[in-house]
What we know:
binds guanosine-5'-monophosphate; HIT family, subunit A; globular; alpha+beta; 5-stranded antiparallel sheet; binds zinc ion
Amino acid sequence: MSHDNCIFCKIVAGQIPSAQVYADDDVIVFKDINPAAELHLLVVPRRHIPTLQDCSVEDQGLLGRMLLLAPKLARDAGFAFEAGSHREANGFRVVMNTGPGGGQEVYHIHMHVLAGPRPWKRM
Length: 123
Ligand code: 5GP
Ligand code: ZN
């Protein structure tokens, strides 16, 4: 079920272009238009869910798959965490902003995957 005025539903539907790096039956992954770090990807479910707070136990598989995708995406981009390595671009961060207080701007759940040398921009 898509939401008429939702920018991420439009990206999922291909009505708005995006720099897509991954897609499967549940999610698409594309580059953030205003990257805060060298790697800044958005993992976006195809299904419209406004916030993490709207998720229920039925969504635990989807949420688990989104989280498990992060290390694969980071590895593919060259930012896997390597124990013992202290280079700056060693590892990554996942973020899900929820609600105005959490800094959420797009009300279609998405997980940010960020990596790269500091400093990062505010997001
Ligand atoms: P939020 O603040 O909701 O957690 O994150 C929304 C993110 O979506 C922001 O980092 C913003 O740059 C990104 N964004 C907003 N509109 C678009 C768009 O049309 N295309 C892409 N690729 N990213 C977008
Ligand atoms: Zn949507």
